[in-house]
UniProtKB/TrEMBL annotation:
PANTHER family: CLASS I PEPTIDE CHAIN RELEASE FACTOR, PEPTIDE CHAIN RELEASE FACTOR 2. It comes from the Bacteria. This is Peptide chain release factor 2. Keywords: Coiled coil, Cytoplasm, Methylation, Protein biosynthesis. Belongs to the prokaryotic/mitochondrial release factor family. Residues 68-114 form a coiled coil. It comes from Corynebacterium amycolatum. One of its GO terms (molecular function) is translation release factor activity, codon specific. The lineage of its organism: Bacteria, Bacillati, Actinomycetota, Actinomycetes, Mycobacteriales. The gene is prfB.
């Protein structure tokens, strides 16, 4: 086997071995056996919420173990593929092995990125808030384009999305939207998307066809769990109910089921109108409010550490990514320098390159701050 090829296979093996150690495959196997025993207990479904947590955790653990085992098997098979191709002197077989090696490298590197998600909330589901910024109607349209981008990304990866609230702008687009992306490590994965997103294009709303720059803000929060103990006294809440409405003010509900929660001490406002009942909307709004208060608490703690010199630079700046549709075609992340020349594919949900580069960048920033 040629030395360069042999070195590449050894590098892939070393990366995968590191992943197996970080994940701790033996401990993962023990965890699966423990969850399987719980799932087999007939009394498990006496508590449906707990049962769902157990079955979900089991499914995720099994999927992770299966993925690692599959990559290890493919890497072992790849060496055999090259040996057979070399013995037979078959260039087509070598070409097939090269294609598999490139695909395997991409899959191993993708899994390597997920092992970098070790923050206290990284494994949680994500609450995403999108708000239109400067740019008028173009900014509202841009906010809706961003929402579609994240929904398309989630759909491509098989993650269920639950929309809590959408506030439509008068002419086009949205003022804001709040939705949850379900799935393990969604917060850790999508948190690198937080910040101001800038769009440059010929405005479809300008009669003179002038170029317009518009902004939208993306906020990513971890879904709050019962163990977080975010206590919100009723006296700290102002609760308003009203009728849900869709684009153009069209009534989508004939009862006052939409809920607006105002946390008086902080001024944080959360709305939810996408559920059928006032009770469901209030529960969803409370989850988002708790997530916002948890994030506020984390930021305050981080600021205290930074003031003591114990933390790295946690601020990514305001504008984190630029999407240019005119006069040239490019999407560029201003933190990682990662860029692509096909904005449409990105807007259609092809975000993996940006997300992986963001996670690696964040790890490097954290290492520098230590």
């Amino acid at each position: 086997m040629n030395p360069d090829l042999n070195a590449d296979l050894k590098e892939l093996d070393a990366t995968l071995t590191t992943i197996e150690k970080v994940v701790d495959v033996d401990e993962l196997s023990d965890r699966i056996r423990e969850l399987e025993a719980q799932a087999a207990d007939p009394s498990l479904w006496d508590d449906p919420d707990h049962a769902q947590q157990v079955t979900s955790a089991l499914s995720q653990a099994q999927a992770k173990k299966k993925k690692i085992d599959s990559l290890r098997g493919r890497l072992d098979d790849l060496s055999v593929m090259y040996e057979l191709a070399e013995e037979e002197g078959d260039p087509d077989a070598v070409e097939m092995a090269d294609a598999e090696r490139a695909e395997l490298r991409a899959d191993i590197e993708s899994l390597e990125v997920t092992t970098m998600l070790s923050g206290p909330y990284d494994e949680r589901e994500a609450v995403i808030n999108i708000r239109s910024g400067a740019g008028g109607v173009d900014a509202a349209d841009w906010a809706e384009m961003l929402m579609r981008m994240y929904l398309r990304w989630a759909d491509k990866h098989g993650h269920k999305v639950e929309v809590y609230d959408t506030s439509y702008a008068e002419e086009a687009g949205i003022k804001s939207a709040t939705f949850v992306v379900h799935g393990e490590y969604m917060y850790g994965t999508l948190s690198v998307e937080q910040g101001a997103h800038r769009l440059v294009r010929i405005s479809p709303f300008d009669n003179q066809g002038r170029r317009q720059t518009s902004f939208a803000e993306v906020e990513v929060l971890p879904v709050v769990e019962e163990t977080d103990h975010i206590d919100i006294p009723e006296s700290d809440l102002r609760i308003d109910v009203y009728r849900s409405s869709g684009p153009g003010g069209q009534s989508v509900n004939t009862t006052d089921s939409a809920v607006r929660l105002t946390h008086v001490p902080t001024g944080i406002v959360v709305t939810c109108q996408n559920e059928k009942s006032q009770h469901q909307n209030k529960a969803s709004a409370m989850r988002v409010l708790q997530a916002k208060l948890l994030e506020k608490k984390r930021q305050e703690e981080r600021a205290e550490l930074d003031a003591l010199g114990a933390g790295g630079n946690a601020s990514w700046g305001n504008q984190m990514r630029s999407y240019v549709l005119h006069p040239y075609q490019m999407v560029k992340d201003l933190r990682t320098e990662y860029e692509v020349n096909n904005p449409q594919s990105v807007l259609d949900g092809d975000l993996d390159g940006f997300i992986e580069a963001g996670i690696r960048w964040r790890m490097a920033q954290q290492s520098e701050g230590e």
